[in-house]
Amino acid sequence: MGVEIKLDINKILKDFKTSENKLNNKLEASLDMSANLMRATQWSILRSRVITWTGNLANSIEVKKTGRFSREIGPVGVIYDKWIEYGGKGNFFGYHYVGKSFKKHHQNFVKRIKNDVKNAL
User: Fold this and answer.
1) Where exactly are the structural domains of the chain?
2) Which of 7, 11, 26, 81 would staple 116 via disulfide (CB 3.0–4.6 Å)?
């Protein structure tokens, strides 16, 4: 062929892939930061509310990576965790340590994720 035009978007696709990887890394970092803040808040709520402190429940709180972009935050291996969260028999109405930690941090979490996406564009 003598005179030709070559259209090649491989460089552009590579740039998009690089940008996508950077965004994904930022999103994961924001997710980890928020999950760890929620974990620390759960621990703090328990520490301030529990009358007899053994630390068993608070020390069982973990951040579990359940997927690239998902985390579970809460106690692991403690059979009374739901009772402490929601309450039970008698006049004990629960400490709501999991719910309160989410409520405290979810707005900042959403803002952080939105900023990560906005800054990536």
Assistant:
1) 18-120
2) 26
